[in-house]
UniProtKB/TrEMBL annotation:
It holds the Pfam family Peptidase_M14. This is Carboxypeptidase B2. Transmembrane segments: none annotated. GO terms for biological process: fibrinolysis; proteolysis. CDD domains: M14_CPB2 (cd06246). The keyword Signal applies. Gene3D superfamilies: Metallocarboxypeptidase-like (3.30.70.340), Zn peptidases (3.40.630.10). It comes from Collichthys lucidus. GO terms for molecular function: metallocarboxypeptidase activity; zinc ion binding. The lineage of its organism: Eukaryota, Metazoa, Chordata, Craniata, Vertebrata. The active site is at residue 380. The keyword Zinc applies. Residues 119-414 form the Peptidase M14 domain. Belongs to the peptidase M14 family. One of its GO terms (cellular component) is extracellular space.
Amino acid sequence: MKTLLILFVFMNLRPGHCTETRDQILSITPITQEQVDILKNVSTQYETSLWQPASPQYIKEETQVHLYVPANSSETVVDLLEKHNITHEVLQANANELIEMQTKNDSTDPRSGATFYERYHNLNDIYFWIERIIQDNPSKVKLILIGSSSEKRPLYVLKLSLNDNPGKKAMWIDCGIHAREWISPAFCLWFVQHSLSFYGQNQDITFILNNMDVYILPVLNPDGYDYTWTTNRMWRKNRSVSKSSGCIGVDLNRNFDANWCTEGASNDPCTEIYCGEFPESEPESQAVADFLRNHKDEVQLYFSIHSYSQMLLFPYSCSREEAENHKDLLEMTREAAQKIRRYYRNTYKYGAGSKTIYLAPGGSDDWAYNLGIKYSFTFELQDVGQYGFLLPPSHISKACNEALIAVKTIALRVIEKTRDLARQSPTF
Ligand code: 0X9
Ligand code: ZN
């Protein structure tokens, strides 16, 4: 009986003998240029979604590629890789299950001890959350409507102002510029909750909020985010319709006016890194740029939250040039990465974007930097690819705490530095 049972289990586990093939996440490492070309081809010609890098143009030899392969193309894709001897391994054999886990809002499940902030939320729930935060904290949080998306959804910024110290500066945090990076909006919610709960309790957050207001945009790309909940979990761009091609979406992190649409972006509307018709052609990027232009004397510190790959990046990504305060930025991210390692035993890379990840022009961090916000960062949160964009809800708390300690470390340093500067400048 036991032998029969083992035989039965074995037969059902044999590749190609599964009752049902599921969506998979593959990690593929091309070695030769020929393999690179084949892989570029596979990722564009077959129904797949390239996770890492963001576009086939960045695929290079001896660098891991993460590819989401839907069940219906998995046999063809794997056969092609095998035929050309391209090294690959399965990171996730059942991505559908991961998607289900992320969307199941198990507040009704009594076994789940997860709090609101340890779950992912759809756009409507986030709008409701914003409303509730404002109602519950009328003296601490203000709601600012900075514009609307291309499908006319509101773009709300929360202003946290917990203290009325005169001449207070501010930091900006945006989340969800890329639709599929769900841990990012989760972080914005986490940050607000942490600030409101621990102001007056935790020394660092109290000091930061005594010296800075915080502007938080929880979902910069609401149309894209909503689309990942309703239709395509792998969507990256916004949802504006290109007149010329009929293809949909602009990569909002290629649409800012920082070496716009040069190497590392594409003018093809059908690609994932389409830069748009002109800089700030999209209502979402324009709203952010307008707001920051109007608050540039106040905002000293800029954060844009992405995933995945565990990196703390700073300008420039739009060129190989070094930022004028490169040393300061490097030191700040080094310290933040060290804190993450010490407190959470996790490794984050850090450095200028163009050298640490890839050349990618038109990004919000570089644009904000050039506007005069000299402390400008992009964080890529967890993980490094095991789950990628499908990071399970049980990982939210650790991922957010890591990002939180990095934000706090950098904010404290910025306050310290700008205070020194203020002391140095002559008083009349
Ligand atoms: O390519 C991007 O926009 C970011 N990586 S992601 O995988 N989340 O898409 C990196 C952004 C780094 N900064 C700039 N390119 N300015
Ligand atoms: Zn991103």
